[in-house]
Structures are given as C-alpha cells and as structure tokens.
C-alpha cells in the first residue's frame, strides 16, 4: 500500500465521523523506484490531503516532506520529495488505525483489508 | 507460441465492429504444456502470439482454490478492452480501476494494453475476497506491473475521497442468477452469486461507479442476457450515461454482453450519442437477432 491510496482511504464503520485519515502503524516498509512524472504529480497535488500525506510518510520513516506544499508547484526538489513519499514508499505489513474507534485494519503483503465486521456496517 | 483460433467465424457487435472470438476452454494449466501439438486443431484453445503481450499471460496468472479463475467472461471483457484499445489510448486516462479483480487477469491485461503508449497511468483494484486481493498482487508481480490493491466491499472505503476521479472503470460482477442467500457468501461463491436475475451486486455497483467516474469516465461491465442488460442501460441512462455493446458472445453456458457506458455530454470519439429512444430500438433489435441466432 502506498501513500497515494492511503490518502484516499476512509474508515467506513457506521456512525464514525472522524473517518480520515487512518493512522499508519508500519511494521515493514519497502522502497520501490517509480518513474518521475511531474505532470501526474501536479495533477495529484490538488487532490491530496497534505497533512495526511506528511503524517503517513513520517509513520513510514520518511521525514523530508515540508509541513505545507509550496506555492510554486514547479519547484523540482519539492516534487521529487512529493514523488518519493506518494509513490515509492510501500507498506508491506502493518495496520491502518481508525482515529475515532481505534479499530485496526490490517495491511498484509501490501494489501489493506478494509472489510467490516457485521456489527460495524 | 502459435496463434490459433477455435473458430474463424467473426462475431459482429452492435455497431458493426467485427471482432474474432477467442473461445478459450478452461483447461488445467498442465494441459498447455502437454498439448502444444499443431496438428491438434480439434482442441478448443488459443495461445497468444509472442509478439502481442497486450494481455495477461494465462500461464502467469496466479491461482487459489477460493479465487475465480479467468474464464469466458474474463476473456470477453479483455477482448472488449482490446477492441477499444485505440480509443482508450486516445482518451488518455489518468486513473483506471477494477472492482472485483479476482485473479488479477483483467486489471493486468488492462495495464499491459495501455502501458506502452501511456506509461504513467495509475491503477486501482478492489475485491471483497482477501485471498483474491493477494492473488491479484501475485499476478501483477508475475507480469512486472503494479496496481494498488485494496480488499473491500465494492469501493466502500474509497468512495468519498475518490469521487469523480476514475477515468476508466472495469467490472466483471457476480452475475449468475442464484437464490438471494448465496450472495456475498465467503469464498469463491461470492465471485458468481448474483441473486435474483443476477442483479444483486450489479445494482449495488452502479451508483458507486456513477460516484467514482470522472466527467470523461468510461465504464465497462460484463452482463448476461439474463441480467436484463437493456434495463441496466435504462438505469444508467437516468443517471446521464449513454451506452453500447462492445462485445457479445455466446458460449455453451452463457450469453455474454459486455457493455460500455460514458457520460452523455461526452463525445466518445467513435460513436455519437444516440437518443435513448433510438438507442433502445437498436439495442432491442440487436438483442433479438442475437437471441434468435442462439435458437438456431
């Protein structure tokens, strides 16, 4: 699971208000290189929740992201850090934790299991 | 590898496209190695030529007893994507998604047929079966491609944040008409059990797809004639979608119809939008002639 999808995941337990973002508890993180594509990154920038990305990256061991995205999107050093955090950090094993209920959704072999129990639907 | 067709009879789709069928009987995987005998033409299987690695290699698709193996429906859907390959490339999607990825055969094929011309597309796949999600990842890895795989019910934890972002959506749902209690059972049955008229899951998927698709989004759906596809098209019409049949194929067991939907305002690039009345006339005509052929 990479931060690009973590930034899209919400906790869907019935009645939960604070459903995003899920806190990451990382047990195993792998880095995999991905081709750098500034156009795609700029396209994503508007949709990404920045604080969730920064916190997520920190949980996975990457602390280089600035607290705020700079006004100048074309800043390449920034885009490289954004690229690395968004697309190159892979959570292989760990959990995604609902901030409100504490419920843990396991991540196994890179796949988050977001299935709800019967009483949570 | 050699390229063989079981039958040279082309299948005409609704709007005049001729697309040769690639009938593909499910055989145990070991059979492929044993039966590579060019004289055995009576065997009903095909092997993709080495030159075209546009779809997933069946030999590299991972499997598990609780996960649906690629079958006629999967191949028909991939054939539909292949038939639309040029349109898809010209359409320039940024994010493609499959709901119900199973073995990973379809999402992997989609990636392979787009990646040469469009190397920077992102892909997402979901399945309600955690084993299928794992198998999909294995299939992706075996082909040297990647997608984000999430185990969830349809797109339940993604709908809010992903709304309006998906440019291509691909769904091969559990479409087999079954008793309602069989729907959503754990394990492999959830891959086909579709409840009354095989529509239980389809009817839950449609509003989710509507929410996720971008303005220019395209949606491919596998249906049987038993699912009343014309009714599905009407439901989607009310949500503002035009539709057409991309592939129709009848096998021994099923009459498959692969539908494509797009938002009304959008020019599809190949076909102009048809008014719902004339569309229904054409659809019914084509559907009845298709059904007629089956009776003969």
UniProtKB/TrEMBL annotation, chain A:
One Pfam family here: Trm112p
SUPFAM superfamilies documented for this protein: Trm112p-like
Signal peptide: none
Example GO BP: tRNA methylation
MF terms (GO), sorted A to Z: protein heterodimerization activity
Similarity remark: Belongs to the TRM112 family.
PANTHER family named among the record's database cross-references: MULTIFUNCTIONAL METHYLTRANSFERASE SUBUNIT TRM112 HOMOLOG B, UPF0315 PROTEIN-RELATED
Subunit structure: Interacts with TRM9.
The protein, known as: Multifunctional methyltransferase subunit TRM112-like protein
Protein's organism: Brassica carinata (Ethiopian mustard)
From TrEMBL, chain B:
GO molecular function: nucleic acid binding; protein methyltransferase activity; S-adenosylmethionine-dependent methyltransferase activity
Entry's family note: Belongs to the eukaryotic/archaeal PrmC-related family.
Protein location: Nucleus
PROSITE patterns assigned: N6_MTASE
Phylogenetic placement of the source organism: Eukaryota, Viridiplantae, Streptophyta, Embryophyta, Tracheophyta
Ranges for domain Methyltransferase small: 92-180
Protein name: Methyltransferase small domain-containing protein
Keywords, ordered alphabetically: Methyltransferase, Nucleus, S-adenosyl-L-methionine, Transferase
Coiled coil: none
Main location: nucleus
GO BP: methylation; multicellular organismal-level iron ion homeostasis; translational termination
Species assigned in the record: Brassica oleracea var. oleracea
Pfam family, one: MTS
Gene Ontology annotations for the cellular component aspect, listed alphabetically: cytosol; eRF1 methyltransferase complex; nucleus
